Amino acid sequence: MTSYKELGLVNTREMFAKAVAGGYAIPAFNFNTLEQMQAIVQAAVETKSPVIMQVSKGARNYANGTILRYMAQGAVEYAKELGCANPQIVLHLDHGDSFELCKDCIDNGFSSVMIDGSALPYEENIALTKKVVEYAHAHDVTVEAELGVLAGVEDEVASEVSHYTKPEEVEDFSKRSGCDSLAISIGTSHGAYKFTPEQCTRDPKTGKLVPPPLAFDILHEIEKRLPGFPIVLHGSSSVPQDEVDTINAHGGKLPDAVGIPEEQLREASKSAVCKINIDSDSRLAMTAAIRKHFDEYPSHFDPRQYLKPARENMKKMYIHKIVEVLGSNDKL
Ligand code: G3H
Ligand code: 13P
Ligand code: ZN
């Protein structure tokens, strides 16, 4: 058993309370690689932001859970080395799909876990979440649950359509499950193709797709029913068009990739939404920089030559999100 406290990590309780009260959101960045971890820590330290580093089941399979745990410990020490006296870093399991996986993470240094029972019938979702909460709280680990289903791919669970969270269920769900935060479905979705062209309109000037707006009425109704309760938005990458254009200009093929407009995420951050999940934008920033580098320097074959600009591009993106969208800068 390794407690996250031994690793210098924190759970989400205090940072979420401050974020809800302060009208900003904590960035939750997925990571699988050393360069992503370095870029996340550099961005968080430079902007004085708390940060959630999250690991999916797929990331654990790719990079190995033990390695990722020590990388999170390394992130804390690296933040201190960069001059941050009191880093506020959470190691979070993203889309945990079983009690056993959540328990394994809690026993191995995670400070927060998500149990995603959103595809289960309502009562089963409550029962599974409650079981995870009981174990997690005994170890002072916080738990994110999900109610409502996002369109797109939730790890291995594919959902063609989005089922918005039903506001009339949130009080009963949070009370009976005991979860510390709740991921809701208001029209975001995972990946770089969040909406089909048919669901969007086209900007007549640029020809770019304009996605349908998020269901803020549902968010506000949820906030009314659960005052001050921490709400989470998954699938919140903006899929920056300049990165998509760079990828496409250098041999990539991402037609009609579209994300959530940043103005809407800015608005959500000011509400009870206190955690915003971003993974795809990091993938796009990394891929754009690498494709461009390969095109410009065909003779390069040392990974450091192309991973360095990739890391810099991700760092720029993380800083932009923290300062210009979520507003979590200057909070340490
Ligand atoms: O919500 C899913 C995250 O983007 C993680 O994706 O399962 O491909 O690591 P992954
Ligand atoms: P994006 O695919 O929009 O980055 O969402 C990531 C996410 O929700 C991780 O849980
Ligand atoms: Zn997600």
At the fourth level of CATH, the homologous superfamily is Aldolase class I
> What small-molecule ligands were found?
glyceraldehyde-3-phosphate, 1,3-dihydroxyacetonephosphate, zinc ion
Query: What does the radius of gyration come to?
Result: 19 Å
CATH class category label: Alpha Beta
Kindly, what is the distance between the CA atoms of the first and last residues, rounded to a whole number of angstroms?
Answer: 29 Å
Number of domains: 1
State which percent range the strand residues make up: 15-25%
Question: How are helices and strands ordered from N to C?
Answer: HEHEHHEHEHEEEHEEEHEHHEHH
| Portion in helices | 40-55%
CATH architecture: Alpha-Beta Barrel
User: Low-confidence stretches at least 5 residues in length (pLDDT < 50)?
Assistant: 153-158
Number of strands: 12
Kindly report the average pLDDT value: 95
Largest sheet properties: 8 strands, parallel, barrel
Characterize this entry briefly:
This protein has 332 residues and is α/β, with parallel strands linked by helices.
